[in-house]
Amino acid sequence: MADTKIYRASTTAPVNIAVIKYWGKRDVTLNLPTNSSLSVTLSQSDLRTHTTASCSSTFTSDTLHLNSAPQDITGARLQACLRALRSLRAAHEASNPSLPPLSTLPLRLASRNNFPTAAGLASSAAGFAALVRAIADLYELPSSPTELSLIARQGSGSACRSLFGGYVAWNAGTATDGSDSSAELVAEAAHWPDMRAAILVASAKKKAVSSTAGMQATVKTSSLFPHRAETVVPARMAAMRAAIAGRDFAAFADLTMKDSNSFHAVCLDTTPPIFYMSDVSRAAVRVVEGINAAAAADGITRPVAAYTFDAGPNAVVYYLAEDEARVAGAFKALLGSVEGWETARGAVVQAADVARVVAYDEGAAETLAGGIQRVILTGVGEGPISVSEHLVNEAGEVILE
Ligand SMILES: Nc1ncnc2c1ncn2[C@@H]1O[C@H](COP(=O)(O)OP(=O)(O)OP(=O)(O)O)[C@@H](O)[C@H]1O
Ligand SMILES: C[C@@](O)(CCOP(=O)(O)OP(=O)(O)O)CC(=O)O
Fold first, then answer.
1. Fold agreement (7-190, 195-379)
2. Is the CB of 127 under 6 A from ligand 1?
3. Which contiguous run of DSSP H or E holds residue 181?
4. How far apart are CA 211 and CA 81, in angstroms?
5. DSSP string for 20-61
6. Alpha carbon distance 115, 13 (integer Å)
7. Where are the alpha helices (DSSP H) in 166-271?
8. If 229 and its partner were Cys, which of 34, 211, 223, 273 is the partner (CB 3.0–4.6 Å)?
9. In this structure, are strands 7-13 and 385-387 parallel, antiparallel, or unpaired?
10. pLDDT averaged per 10 residues in sequence order, the chain, 401 residues
């Protein structure tokens, strides 16, 4: 009798925010970067993608639903991921003929992001990591997270880092086929569990210049860029690994802010220039400087907050749990009326006295207060997690609401 079973596997996957940025491709098709990068994986209690991979002989073609809308799956990047996973499954089946031939069956994929998609919140990273991990689980592949990162990388570069929790490097590699351009665990979340992040959402709109287009323009036209890729980033990667190994927040913060500024500098050095940071982003920089100046005035000899910006205006501010009152407390005082403080993490934050932070740059404090729509409080977290809640039911129907 024909096998009409609906095979299913589900996973959740995290977002990651780089502290040493990936910007520039040396191979656009294989998604190979010009430099290594390093990120912090953020907790799935706050931001996550949930994806179910299913397959069955009763399905007629491969499909993907994202947040209940059917997606175009003909894109080369998604197709490269599906092809790579099917070929691993086919090899698995060839070496173990008792396995059902899942590699030949159409896939029905259903996914949900619990945060805005394509709004500079790294949805593509969580999305491709979840997709690759869910299909690998469905296919019962023995692949390690590093092996799966080679596949996720082809979907979206930053996705390769979301296969791990904690502190994660993506080694650029040198092989032309990309076989050594993969993610590696630098340190588990438990090594430095006190790392927190406040995401200040300045805009949830889709960005004007996509990462892919922006990177290509930078590689082609920026004369600053080769210096960043060849000299600045390699030294920073080593220094950042040391900062994480030593739980040295002063070094972590300094490197994080410098590298964000360097990335946005090469964007500005692109022809035509690319502006991802806005007036509100620049106000966030000034307010973080004000928070650090207030801490210094109290005799704290290291920065307590570090900003970083991806390809959009939203600020991500890293800080340690012990400095929550100074950092998250300052944001609560300045941005208390926006969405986000009602969460378990937000409710316990006490609004701080921000007189000195405001005095540091009154205009910045005002611009920030008027320009931030939402705050997401989170912290370092774990990698993808297999879950039993499926977004495709036993009858094979997608059940996204
Ligand atoms: N859950 C998901 N499953 C599969 N693909 C997804 C998922 N979420 C997002 N994507 C893909 O990622 C695209 C969004 O990527 P894009 O780089 O534009 O935004 P972003 O990742 O939110 O922002 P940024 O990369 O600047 O942080 C979506 O259009 C979709 O193709
Ligand atoms: C600024 C960044 O967030 C760029 C992320 O770029 P993507 O991974 O979204 O790019 P593609 O590989 O073209 O999909 C920095 C980073 O995450 O390291």
1. no
2. yes
3. none
4. 19
5. E----EEETTTTEESS-EEEEEBPTTTS-EEEEEEE-TT--S
6. 13
7. 211-221, 225-227, 233-245, 249-268
8. 34
9. antiparallel
10. 92 98 97 98 97 98 95 97 98 96 98 84 94 98 97 98 98 98 98 98 82 96 98 98 98 98 98 97 98 98 97 97 98 97 96 98 98 97 98 94 68
In degrees and rounded to multiples of 5, residue 70 shows phi and psi of -65, 140
Fold of 7-190: Ribosomal Protein S5; domain 2 (3.30.230)
Domain boundaries along the sequence of the chain? 7-190, 195-379
How many angstroms from the chain centroid is the CA of residue 243?
A: 20
* Cα gap 254→234, rounded to integer Å: 16
Nearest to 131 by CA among 187, 183, 62: 62
Report the C-alpha gap between 47 and 16 in whole angstroms: 10
Ligand 2 center from residue 222 Cα (angstroms):
18
Q: Distance between CA atoms of 185 and 163, rounded to whole angstroms?
A: 9
Letter string b/e over residues 375-400, b meaning 16 or more CB atoms within 10 A of that residue's CB:
bbbbbbbbbbbebeebbbeeebebee
Q: In this predicted structure, what is the pLDDT of residue 203?
A: 80
Tell which one of 15, 123, 133 to mutate to probe ligand 1, the residue whose CB is within 8 A of the most ligand atoms. Answer: 123
CA 160 to ligand 2 centroid distance, Å: 10
Structure tokens at 57: 């002989």
- Around Cβ 273, how many Cβ atoms within 10 Å? 11
Distance between CA 51 and CA 386 in Å, rounded? 10
- Distance from C-alpha of 279 to C-alpha of 368, rounded to nearest angstrom: 9
For ligand 1, whether the C-beta of 313 sits within 6 Å is no
Please tell me the distance between residue 122's alpha carbon and the centre of ligand 1 in angstroms.
7
The first and second tokens of residue 16, run together, are: 């990651």
Q: Is 207 helix (H, G, I), strand (E, B) or coil?
A: coil
Write down the pLDDT at residue 270: 98
Which structure tokens are listed for 371? 């320009």
Phi/psi of residue 202, each to 5°? -90, -30
Q: Are 63 and 137 in contact (CB under 8 A)?
A: no
Question: So what CATH class is 195-379?
Answer: alpha beta
User: Which phi-psi region, left, alpha or beta, contains residue 67 (left: φ > 0; alpha: ψ -120 to 50)?
Assistant: left
